[in-house]
Structure formats: C-alpha cells, structure tokens
Structure prediction request, 388 residues.
Amino acid sequence: MLRFSIAKIISGTVIVLSVFAPAAIAQDQCNLAKDIVVQALERIKTGTTEEAGDGLQLLKHATEVCINSGDAWYFRSIYEKKLGQPSKSEYSMKKAKLFGSEAMDQGEDPFQLATIPGAPMAVGPVREKWALVVGIAKFQDKHFGRLNFANKDAKDFAAVLVDPSVGRFKPSNVHSLVDGEVTTRQLKQELNWLARSANDPNDLVVIFLSSHGTPRNKDTAEVNYIATSDTELEPEDNLFATSVPMTQISDIVRGRIKAQRTVILLDTCHSGAAATRPTSSAALRSDSSASNDALDRIRQGVGRAIVTSSSPDEKSYEGQPYSNGYFTHFLLEGLRKDGGQVSMEQLYAFLKQNVVKAAGSIQRRQTPVFSHSEHGAEIMIGAPASGG
Prediction:
C-alpha cells in the first residue's frame, strides 16, 4: 500500500511537469502572437488595401501561433472586413468573442481616424485642455537601470502645465503619474481616460512620457515598446507581453482622440546604456525614439504634433549641468520663455537649437525630431481655454 501511494505521488508529479512544459510553451507562443499583432498594426499608416493585405497575412500567422488570441482574431476580422471578405470577417469575430479581446472591448480600429483630413476642421478657440503626464523611473526588472530624472521631468512638466501664467491647464484636467512607479495596466487606463475626455474637436491634448523604451533591434520584429515598472526585459518573449507598444499609443491618438490639437512629447530611452551614473556628470539615456513608421502613424489625421527627444540613431542625455533630461530642460525653458504662447514649430526650433548645442558641449549628438499632420490649426500648449 505504501509503495502504491509513493508511485502514485511520483506519477502525479510527472504528470504535473509534463503538463507544465507544454503550458509554458503555449504561453510563449501567445506572447509571440501579441508581437505579431503589433507588427500588423504598424503596417497601417494611411489605410490602403495593400497595407491591409500585408497586415492580414501577419494576423493569420498570429492566430496560427496562438489559436486562442482574441485580439489577433479581432483585428483579423477588422482587416478582412476592410478587404471585402464579410464571411471570413464574421467567422473571425466569432472567434474573438469566444476567446475574449481587450481590443474588441475598447472598440479599436486601426483604419478609423478620429480626425479626418477634408472634414470640417476646428478653427475656433480652444474649448478645453487635457493632459497625461507620465514619468517612470523605477523598474522591477533589474536589467533596467533606474532613471535619475524621469519622474522629476514629469513633475516639472506637470507644474508648468497648471501654471496659470504658462500652461493654463485646469489641475483637474491634468493626470500625472509621477511617483516613479507606473504599471502597464495603469498607463493603459490613463490613456483610455484621455481618449474618453478629449471628445470635442476644439479640445487640446498633451501627452508627455518619460521612461525607458526598448530599441527596435531588441525585439525580433523590430517593434518599439514603452517600458513600465512591471515590464520584463528578459526572456524576450516577456518583453512584448508586459510593455506598451508604441502602436497602442499611436492608435489611441489616431482613432479615439477627437481633439484636433494634440501634442505628444516622448523622452524615452532603453536600458542598455541608461545605467545610473553620479549626478556630477551627464548620464546617458540611450534613445529608442519612435521610429519613422510610428511617427507617420501618429501624425495621420488633423492637428497632430509629435516631438521625440532624439533621432532613432542617436542617444539622449540627462543630468549635469541640468537637473532634468536635456530634452525636458529646454522644453520647460521654451514654454516659460513666452508664457506658453508659442507655436509647436517655434518651440521645436528652440528645442532643437539648444539640445543640439548642449549635447555638443559634452561631445555627443542629440537631435530632437518633430513630426506633424499636414492639416490643422496652429497649436500652442499655453493657449487659454474657453471652457466650453
């Protein structure tokens, strides 16, 4: 009897282990499917049939890799509908409903633009102003170095926004995640708050984000991700399961924010060269700025302006002789200089000139990049709001 019990326990252990291994592999496959979905979304810039066809092939692969990926099935349905395949679209949607899809629940549609070129544009005064300010400096994964100034950058920028002589934002309309720790879930929730709030074409929206980012060459599909406090850099499969893809931010801006004055300011860097250094010298923020493809996606529509801290092939710096990232220091200075009454084009010219000069003083290169929609009214972050 004793021998039988022991054998049963051993057998049970073997069964548990044999089940666990395939389960772990399946999870890795579903993490990979998430990355493939991001690739498919990145294919959509202007929404052409060719872009949809390329993306659909990726989504078909995603549903093969992970058959129960609800998001993959949902986006597959959207792409099939775009390509005039109603029966296939209906089948894929049934699969998405069966497995559950966060993207479906949010009504995401990469082909939908919240602001459409050619439609009546907002030409009146700013009605209301909204901002999301994020600074992430603490990371659970030890592969990420702590950022010395990311949360200070965010706090200082939020303070400028609510300054009645500069930003002129209502404090209640500025959501700040500036305590150093921000989870992926928190960031997504706040982005959804912003999309729900900025529901008038005459609104003005600002997104400021300072954190680690991941370089495109870190991911097998060359996709940009924003690191949050609970992002896991290794193993690689965990990266795209625990971070926020740049496409998710761009799709919220493209498809859900109706405000025709929207500014995105990105000061992101990847962990490989962002190790903490003494504050007596400038610390390196090796850049993983949004790629040109990501910038093209964001600027589609009307009244979108995006500024990144440096070009994709350069690095960003923080610290001495400033108490912020170089990019943020001159962003704040440029806004204060004219009481916020400066166009994004003028602000960018000031930023570029001074950041390039500051980086040059330490024999480095850092050039902010500006991208914007072809249509839309002039954007001034400090413009007064009428309040509706």
Q: What stands out?
A: Residues 1-21, 217-222, 270-289 have pLDDT under 50 and may be disordered. The radius of gyration is 23 Å. The first strand starts at residue 129 and ends at 136.
